[in-house]
Task: structure prediction
Amino acid sequence: MIQINIDGKMSIDAALKKYKAKYIKIGILKELNERKTFKKRSVERRDEITRAKYRQSKRDQDKDQ
Result:
């Protein structure tokens, strides 16, 4: 459960903004989506390698420019 400390003079909008930021930082939504379906270990590894290749290609493009 996510808990945020709210000061007496903090507005509801500020509290919601703080909650949303913490929610994203912790990664609750990402974890829920990952748990919806089962992924074989080999498929997870393949996806991880594909993402790494993509990131590396982007870094290489930035260095060339």
